[in-house]
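Worked example

This section walks through a single chain of length 72. The input is the sequence exactly as stored; nothing has been trimmed or padded.
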Amino acid sequence: MWIDSRDRTGERQGRRREMAQAKKVAFYIIVIFVLYTIINTPARAADLVQEGFEGISEAAHQIGEFMTELVE
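Given that input, the structure is written out below as tokens.
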């Protein structure tokens, strides 16, 4: 039986570089999509941003109510 004791750090570093490249490409695709949406349908994009902020605001309000009830 032969045991392979080679150091595989080179392979791991290669995979890390590939993952970093994939993340970078995915990020650029998302940015391009967002810009495309904003340019083509600015009213709809504004509605989505407003809904997002309303959702965050509602979540913060609910957390505040939960903490108040927890303290009482």
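What to look for: The chain is about 85% helix and 0% strand.
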